[in-house]
Write a structure and sequence with these properties.
Strand order of the largest sheet: 1-2-3-5-8-9-10-12
Strand content: 15-25%
Radius of gyration: 20 Å
Largest sheet: 8 strands, parallel, barrel
Number of strands: 12
Helix content: 40-55%
CATH superfamily: Luciferase-like domain
Order of helices and strands: EHEHEEHEHHEEEHEHEHHHHHEHEH
CATH topology: TIM Barrel
CATH architecture: Alpha-Beta Barrel
Structural class: alpha/beta
Number of domains: 1
CATH class: Alpha Beta
Shape: globular
Number of helices: 14
């Protein structure tokens, strides 16, 4: 199992963070698109590491066109000498329309077409194929030599797609190389909903499980003593509550019979009652979504839940913990 970490946005720290991750045995690092560009830290990280894979987890696809994203990803794949992982996500309608001022419609079919359009562009650059992609949402039919970077000795990027719902998960299975499983998931949802949807996608795309990678940021509650563990639990409860308030993620709660919790979390979120939302996450909900154990038991529990399903794992720990706490866990998981 590959174990991944994260990378921040402070350009004064990015190089150090990437080198520390590589030295600690992490297989890769992911950057997020929140309040900063997700690609720039990876450029610095690639320059100052040798084997570390570098990915976006995620870059917002619908904030860009297939052409602009194809170019950025192609360049990073070349600069990193084949170590770039393009993780994409759709975001939600209000952000796409009101924050990015971009069109939103039919997210799963649009995402499928977006990735196929990128692949057509890369095929043109790699193999000299005439660019003639015509879809319902995107059309790319012009590529003159001046704008063609030509073939890359490192091939095209590996494409991961973030998904929760069944339609987007099927798209991931059909047209992507891997899936970024949302942190707001459970073992049961992964096995009963996500995997069957992926299998339908693999069938459409003519793939098998061996052609695909599953990456999961798993919630982890741990600490060196009771006080540390309790602080970690409070932070994770609040993060679970935040995701649980989102209507698009209700299906995960519904599967466990907790649909009414989503209604209450959504109501409180509109009132800004973030702390109160966290208190609604019971111990039962917490231990269903998160690994809750002492540091020495984290790897064992992760492997017990996900060892036969997940290819890449990272720690979703929205709290401060000592850096050396994770080292033995990384080594145990990597050996597995």
């Amino acid at each position: 199992m590959k174990v991944d970490g994260g990378i921040g946005f402070d350009v004064r720290r990015v190089v150090e963070e990437a080198q520390e991750a590589e030295a600690a045995g992490y297989a890769g690092v992911w950057s997020a698109e929140t309040s900063h560009d997700p690609f720039l830290p990876l450029l610095l990280g690639a320059e100052h590491t040798d084997r570390l894979e570098l990915g976006t987890g995620i870059a917002v696809a619908f904030a860009r066109s297939p052409m602009t994203l194809a170019m950025t990803a192609y360049d990073l794949q070349r600069f990193s000498e084949g170590r770039f992982l393009l993780g994409l996500g759709s975001q939600i309608k209000p952000h796409i329309e009101k924050r990015f001022s971009m069109p939103w419609s039919h997210p799963a079919p649009r995402m499928r077409e977006f990735i196929l359009a990128m692949r057509a562009i890369w095929d043109c650059w790699m193999n000299g194929t005439k660019l003639d992609f015509r879809g319902d949402f995107y059309s790319h039919t012009l590529m003159t030599p001046f704008f063609n970077p030509g073939p890359s000795e490192y091939g095209v990027p590996t494409v991961f797609l973030a998904a929760v719902g069944q339609k987007m998960t099927e798209v991931a299975g059909e047209v992507a190389d891997g899936m970024l499983v949302h942190g707001f998931t459970t073992e049961r949802y992964l096995r009963e909903v996500t995997l069957p949807a992926l299998e339908r996608g693999w069938h459409k795309g003519g793939k098998t499980r061996a052609d695909f990678q599953l990456s999961l940021p798993s919630f982890v509650v741990t600490g060196r003593d009771e006080a540390e563990t309790e602080r970690a639990a409070t932070a994770v409860r609040q993060q679970i509550a935040f995701y649980g308030s989102t209507p698009a993620y209700r299906a995960v709660l519904d599967l466990h019979g907790w649909g009414d919790l989503q209604d209450e979390l959504n109501r409180l979120s509109k009132q800004g009652e973030w702390e109160q939302m966290g208190r609604l996450i019971t111990d039962d909900v917490l231990t269903t979504f998160a690994i809750v154990t002492e540091p020495g038991g984290v790897a064992k529990q992760l492997l017990s839940r996900f060892g036969d399903v997940i290819d890449r794992i990272s720690f979703y720990a929205p709290y401060t913990a000592a850096n050396d706490l994770w080292g033995p866990i990384v080594q145990e998981l990597s050996a597995a």
